[in-house]
C-alpha cells in the first residue's frame, strides 16, 4: 500500500519513522503547508513533498492517506480523502463531534473501505494482556476501571500551538491523550451510559487547560474515571478492578520513549504477581493490522461502532465540562 502523510509536525514525522521497516505500507509522499524546514527529513525518508492535499488526492499512484493534521481539520479533510477514492487512516480523535464522526463513518461504509484510527495503545502488550484477562473472566465481574495518564509535554508548547487551543483541544489534554483511555475502556466494558467531566487551569501560567477529570458510568453498574494533567511529569497508570482480582498497568514513559510497562496482577486472595513487558512498535502494529484489513486478510480490531462511541464520549466530556459538570447521557 502506497501512502501519503498529511501533516508533517512532530507526530506526522513519528508515523513515517515508525513505518520505515514496514513491507505492507510505503510512505511515498508528505504534505504540509510549510515544507521549507523538511528537506533533510524528506531526503532521509525518500519523500516527495507537497503543500496541497489535492496533489496527492489526484495522484493515482497513492492508495491511502494518513491524516495527522490539527483535530478541527479532520472531518473536512477525511471526507475529501474518502471522496477521492483513497483509503483513510485518521489520527485520533476522528472528529470533534459525533455528527462529524458519523459523516466520516458513513462515507467509509459507502465506499466499502476500512477506516484506520490512531489508537495504537490497544496494541501495547500490557493492555492486550488486560483485555485478554477481562474477556476470559479471570477478574470476575468487572466493577471499576480507572486511569491517570499525564505528562507535561504540552506545557512546553507555545500558547499559539494548535494542540493547546480550545478549537483543537476542547477537552484539554484529554482531546489527544485521554481518548486513548476511553477507547480502551470501550473495548473492555462497552460504551459509557453517562459522563460527567471537569476541566480547568490550576497553574496560572499554564498553557491551555491543565486538568481534566472524568467520571463514567457503564452498563451493569460498572464505574470508571479518567484523569489527564498536562503540567506534571509523565505518569501512566491504568487499573481494572473485578470481583476476583485486579490488574494495574504502570507505564514509564510516552509511547515514543521505548520504555517497558510494569503489571501488577492480584487474585481473590490478595496475592500479587508482577510482570515487566517490553515496549514494542505499537504504531507499526496498528498500521499493519489496518493494511491487512484493507487487503481483506484480517478483521481490524476497531469496529465502526467503537470508533463512533469514543467520539460520543469526547463530545459528552466537552459538553459536561462547559456546563458546570452536568451529567450527560449517551444514547
Summarize the topology.
Elements: E1 2-6, H1 10-19, E2 26-31, H2 39-44, E3 48-50, H3 53-57, E4 64-67, H4 74-83, E5 87-90, H5 98-111, E6 116-117, H6 125-135, E7 142-150, H7 178-189, E8 194-200, E9 211-217, E10 223-229, E11 235-242, E12 245-251, E13 261-266, E14 272-277, H8 282-294, H9 304-322, E15 328-329
Parallel strand pairs: 1-2, 1-4, 2-3, 4-5, 5-6, 7-10
Antiparallel strand pairs: 7-11, 8-9, 8-15, 9-10, 11-12, 12-13, 13-14
Helix pairs in contact: 4-5, 5-9, 7-9
Domain GFO/IDH/MocA-like oxidoreductase: 129-248
Domain Gfo/Idh/MocA-like oxidoreductase N-terminal: 1-119
InterPro entries: Gfo/Idh/MocA-like_OxRdtase_N, Gfo/Idh/MocA_Oxidoreductases, GFO_IDH_MocA-like_dom, NAD(P)-bd_dom_sf
Written account of the structure:
The chain is of the alpha/beta class and 331 residues long. It folds into two domains: 2-120, NAD(P)-binding Rossmann-like Domain (Rossmann fold), CATH 3.40.50.720; 121-329, Dihydrodipicolinate Reductase, domain 2 (2-Layer Sandwich). The chain has nine helices and 15 strands. The strands form two sheets. A nine-stranded mixed sheet has the order 14-13-12-11-7-10-9-8-15. It has a six-stranded parallel sheet with strand order 3-2-1-4-5-6, sandwiched between helices. The longest helix is centred in the C-terminal third of the chain and has 19 residues, at 304-322. The protein is globular and about 60 Å long. GO terms for molecular function: nucleotide binding.
Amino acid at each position: 500500500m502506497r501512502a501519503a502523510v498529511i501533516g508533517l509536525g512532530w507526530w506526522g514525522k513519528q508515523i513515517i519513522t515508525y513505518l520505515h521497516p514496514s513491507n505492507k505500507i510505503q510512505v511515498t509522499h508528505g504534505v504540509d503547508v510549510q515544507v521549507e524546514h523538511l528537506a533533510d527529513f524528506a531526503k532521509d525518508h525518500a519523500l516527495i513533498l507537497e503543500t496541497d492535499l489535492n496533489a496527492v488526492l489526484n495522484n493515482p499512484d497513492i492508495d491511502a492517506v494518513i491524516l495527522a493534521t490539527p483535530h478541527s481539520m479532520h472531518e473536512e479533510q477525511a471526507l475529501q480523502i474518502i471522496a477521492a477514492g483513497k483509503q483513510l487512516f485518521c489520527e485520533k480523535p476522528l472528529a470533534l463531534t459525533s455528527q462529524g464522526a458519523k459523516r466520516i463513518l458513513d462515507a467509509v461504509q459507502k465506499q466499502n473501505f476500512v477506516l484506520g484510527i490512531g489508537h495504537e495503545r490497544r496494541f501495547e502488550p500490557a493492555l492486550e494482556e488486560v483485555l485478554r484477562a477481562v474477556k476470559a473472566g479471570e477478574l470476575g465481574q468487572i466493577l471499576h476501571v480507572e486511569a491517570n495518564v499525564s505528562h507535561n509535554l504540552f506545557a512546553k508548547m507555545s500558547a499559539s500551538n494548535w494542540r493547546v487551543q480550545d478549537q483543537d483541544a476542547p477537552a484539554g489534554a484529554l482531546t489527544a491523550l485521554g481518548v486513548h483511555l476511553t477507547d480502551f475502556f470501550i473495548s473492555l466494558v462497552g460504551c459509557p451510559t453517562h459522563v460527567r467531566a471537569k476541566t480547568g487551569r490550576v497553574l496560572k501560567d499554564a498553557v491551555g487547560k491543565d486538568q481534566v477529570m472524568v467520571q463514567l458510568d457503564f452498563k451493569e453498574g460498572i464505574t470508571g474515571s479518567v484523569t489527564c494533567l498536562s503540567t506534571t511529569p509523565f505518569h501512566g497508570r491504568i487499573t481494572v478492578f473485578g470481583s476476583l482480582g485486579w490488574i494495574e498497568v504502570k507505564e514509564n514513559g510516552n509511547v515514543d520513549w521505548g520504555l517497558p510497562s510494569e503489571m501488577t496482577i492480584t487474585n481473590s486472595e490478595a496475592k500479587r504477581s508482577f510482570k515487566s513487558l517490553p515496549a514494542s512498535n505499537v504504531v507499526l502494529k496498528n498500521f499493519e493490522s489496518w493494511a491487512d484489513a484493507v487487503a481483506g486478510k484480517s478483521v481490524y480490531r476497531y469496529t465502526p461502532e467503537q470508533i463512533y462511541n469514543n467520539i460520543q464520549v469526547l463530545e459528552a466530556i466537552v459538553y459536561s465540562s462547559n456546563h458546570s459538570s452536568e451529567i450527560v447521557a449517551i444514547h
